[in-house]
Amino acid sequence: MSSFSFEIVETLHGTRARAGELSTARGTIKTPAFIAVGTKATVKGLSTETLSRIGVQAVLGNTYHLYLEPGEKVVAEAGGIGSFMNWSGPTFTDSGGFQVFSLGAGFGKGINKFERDVDADEALVPYNKELAQSHGKLAIIDEDGVSFTSHLDGSLHRFTPERSMEIQHALGADIIFAFDECTSPTADEAYQKEAMERTHRWAKRSLLSHKRNIDSARRQALFGIVQGGRFAHLREESAKVIAGMDFDGFGIGGSFSKKDLDASLARVNTILPMEKPRHLLGIGSEPRDLFDGVEHGIDTFDCVAPTRLARTGTLYTARGEIHILNARYRTDHTLLDEETGSEVGKTYSKAYLAHLFRSREMLGAVLASEHNLFFMMQLLARIRASLLDGTFREYRQEFLTKYYGKA
RNA sequence: GCGUCGGUGGCAGAGUGGUCAAAUGCAGCGGACUGUAAAUCCGCCGGGCGUAGCCCUACGGGGGUUCAAAUCCCUCCCGGCGCA
């Protein structure tokens, strides 16, 4: 009855890695896969024709952004996010939970999903605009949901698990996420626990709210999100609780310290049911993280890194990342990256791209975005192929050695 | 030729006696970026060094006044404009 299914095609002995096929109403994703981030119903700088050409399988939009602009109604009128943006493949929407963090605790503090040496105050405060502003935040959390001011015009809004579901139903993506709280990596254990437990209650409400909408529940798959921050025992507890709910798949969210991402995934994925898909939210800047994720049983990833790095001048190449704005590339007429297979990489020179970036020509950002995203598509495609023919370990060794150097 | 205004760091352009190695922007150099408030943000940016500090040389050239000059005076050079 549901148009959603996940089939494991191959596994790699001695690891939790698997190659699979994740089927949705709008197409099948061959996993492991990198999902392109298209927050505002656009993968910045790239047309959907380009996305198809470079092998993008699915796009992930964001509830928060699309709710604010153009509004979920407009998207619904267009037939959902896919039709709206002229993307015929599978789509995901994030629940807006990440914005609870990025506009809340993380606001203006320069902290991100990974641990930094920044101190954050995580006090729970009843919402009012003045208070929020005095705390330097655009979002304030309470048990029922999150109140926030729009970053566009300062107007007041409120998300609850039910509201997030309602919006995501209207946006109509094939895979949607439960409303969660992504905590700051600097939050202490007591807060992580409190936030995690709240996220669990929100997960239950999201699920209930989703099932109640029979029509949406048939067309859209709902993924629950495991939290727990950087504390192993909380991660485990969260995985157990979320795994115990009737979700179609799982998202692994929240913050990690760089060093224990690996360990967290290892724990979480032994607890999550093997037969359901797992999406690692927001990870995929470093190629080695993708190999690690796959090895620990992650099926899909999403990350803004390929396109953001591209726009800011950092390009992936088979020999590591390069900063195209560095002086040395001004006169480097060699091709950007002949080895990865990217059209851009084997067509345009570093000197030309350096020129486009220096002169702020928009083509620079476009070509760089295409290249970086292709790089990730290619990486995941090769990883999948290596799982299918059993050469995963060899491929990882070969790729990482070339990418990071011998060191 | 006379008059007048002006000559400041790579460029543009503030400053018009001390808090000026000199605002700001651009350019330059480097860095960051992980469920996108990001075509963004952060450093450095006269020279040298042990770079939260110290030393040297500096505001067209030269000479003065002053405890102190990018800032005032004289002179020369250069440029814009006006008049011959």
Automatic annotation (TrEMBL):
* Keyword Secreted (UniProt): no
**Region of interest: RNA binding:** 307-311
Keyword annotations for this protein, in alphabetical order, are: Glycosyltransferase, Queuosine biosynthesis, Transferase, tRNA processing
Q: Which pathway?
A: tRNA modification; tRNA-queuosine biosynthesis
Q: Which domain of life is it from?
A: Bacteria
- According to the UniProt entry, what is the EC number of this protein? 2.4.2.29
Record function comment: Catalyzes the base-exchange of a guanine (G) residue with the queuine precursor 7-aminomethyl-7-deazaguanine (PreQ1) at position 34 (anticodon wobble position) in tRNAs with GU(N) anticodons (tRNA-Asp, -Asn, -His and -Tyr). Catalysis occurs through a double-displacement mechanism. The nucleophile active site attacks the C1' of nucleotide 34 to detach the guanine base from the RNA, forming a covalent enzyme-RNA intermediate. The proton acceptor active site deprotonates the incoming PreQ1, allowing a nucleophilic attack on the C1' of the ribose to form the product.
Q: What is this protein called?
A: Queuine tRNA-ribosyltransferase
The organism named in the record is: Candidatus Kaiserbacteria bacterium CG10_big_fil_rev_8_21_14_0_10_49_17
